[in-house]
Specification:
Layout (H helix, E strand, L loop, with lengths): L1 H31 L30 H6 L14 E6 L17 E2 L14 H10 L15 E6 L15 H14 L3 E4 L8 H12 L3 E5 L22 E6 L17 E4 L3 E4 L5 E4 L2 H18 L5 H10 L8 H4 L6 H6 L24 H33 L31
Parallel strand pairs: 1-3, 1-4, 2-3, 4-5, 5-6, 6-7
Antiparallel strand pairs: 8-9
Helix pairs in contact: 1-4, 3-6, 4-5
Length: 428
């Protein structure tokens, strides 16, 4: 019975994998030859509808908003005019705080129309951090004026393994689709751990067209994990993001290495949930979303910044962290300083040199002894002069005769003991 059941499961996995490969074949082939694929042209495959459930109402302002203070930037920039591609598990566009903020996008995994639907809430979590409508006492997006382009390439709820990792071929296709759409930023909150030529080349093509790519550093950096190199965060020019907790310490599971450019909140983060409400999650996926939202703020104010300049500004304005560079990069993300600090291309001028100064040579031993003797004589002479000034006038007044002590005064009173005197004794 056990053998038969195993064979059935293996057969089911083979059928599901074959259906997904067939669904992905059309968009992948089209994008590899440079032909944009409309959502309606994507193949259709089945989906296991074990969707994530709605969340709960927000319980106050989340700690990342208080730490980063990105609300202070909104009078200057709010992300208006910027499009952020979220290559992930789709986005639940019907969430009240995402309405009118999510474009149609594409579903490269199943072929369903658009990517603005979601069974897996991961992409909705990420999109909410980037662009959720602000509320008085709940979750607010970093750049609520930005627009989200959902590119669906993975779905944990439709995976027998329960993993939301993207197939590198689908991820490369998603990057090319977003590039051809004309986005400004690509957020990739997922990782794989083997260099892939398709993804590497897709990243290079997007960067060549001025698209900023932000990627998570992965969650395999714990003591019991091998801390493998995460891609695409490790590709040149990609902004790699690690996760920290509320105290500013690196999440032990967050990947650490030279690919970490800076860190952002990624532990116990309150996010929008598929179906409505909020949830609390952890991982470098959500730290990357805070950085993508900040990049949207930057580009809404400075639209001519290149991807290299965006990375330089984020790192130059980060708050230094008291930890190793491979775990924290340049430090903690600072949206306010990234947007408002002034930038100059001028090189620093060197300070003028100090004038040379030669200290006097120390005196010899003989000279030191002579100087000490002279000082002693001077002190004695000064004491003699002061004493003379006080005694000479008195000596002159006495004509230099010795003075006598004054005689002891004698009492004129009768010291004999007498009886006490009684007052008013005559009245008795």
């Amino acid at each position: 019975m056990t053998v038969r059941r195993t064979r059935v499961i293996d057969k089911w996995r083979w059928l599901v994998a074959g259906a997904r490969r067939l669904a992905a074949a059309v968009p992948v082939l089209g994008l590899l030859v440079g032909v944009p694929v409309a959502p309606a042209a994507v193949g259709v495959a089945g989906r296991a509808l074990a969707c994530d459930q709605p969340g709960v109402p927000a319980a106050g302002v989340p700690w990342p908003q208080r730490m980063l203070g990105f609300e202070r930037v909104r009078p200057v920039a709010d992300g208006t005019g910027v499009v952020v591609a979220v290559i992930d598990t789709g986005v639940y566009a019907s969430h009240p705080q995402l309405r009118d903020r999510v474009l149609t996008g594409v579903d490269l995994l199943t072929g369903l129309p658009g990517g603005n639907h979601a069974c897996d809430t991961h992409g909705t979590n990420v999109a909410g951090i980037i662009a959720a409508a602000p509320t008085v006492d709940g979750v607010s997006g970093v750049a609520p004026g930005a627009r989200i382009l959902p590119v669906l390439v993975a779905d944990r709820t439709a995976s027998l393994s329960g993993s939301a990792e993207a197939d590198p071929e689908l991820l490369a296709a998603g990057i090319d689709w977003a590039r051809q759409f004309g986005v400004d930023i690509i957020n990739i909150s997922m990782s794989f751990y083997n260099d892939n030529a398709l993804v590497r080349n897709a990243v290079a093509r997007a960067q060549a067209e001025g698209i900023v790519i932000v990627a998570a550093a992965g969650n395999e950096g714990g003591a019991d994990s091998p801390n493998p190199t995460p891609y695409p965060a490790a590709y040149p020019g990609v902004i790699g993001v690690g996760a920290i907790d509320q105290s500013g310490l690196r999440d032990p599971d967050s990947g650490h290495g030279p690919y970490v450019d800076l860190v952002a909140p990624g532990v116990d983060v309150t996010v929008l949930q598929r179906g409505g409400g909020t949830w609390v999650v952890s991982g470098s996926s959500f730290a990357a979303a805070f950085v993508s939202g900040t990049v949207a703020l930057l580009l809404s104010r400075w639209p001519d910044l290149t991807p290299e300049q965006v990375g330089q500004r984020l790192q130059a304005t980060a708050t230094p962290a008291a930890g190793p560079k491979d775990g924290y990069g340049a430090g903690v993300l600072s949206p306010y300083h990234a947007v408002t600090d002034q930038w100059t291309e001028a090189s620093a001028r060197p300070l003028p040199g100090l004038p040379s100064y030669a200290p006097p040579s120390p005196p010899s031993d003989a000279a030191a002894r002579r100087a000490g003797l002279a000082a002693g004589v001077a002190v004695v002479a000064a004491v003699a002069v002061l004493a003379g000034a006080a005694l000479v006038p008195r000596g002159r007044r006495r004509r230099w005769r010795p003075g006598l002590a004054p005689p002891r005064a004698t009492s004129t009173l009768d010291d004999r003991v007498r009886p006490p005197v009684r007052l008013f004794s005559d009245l008795e």
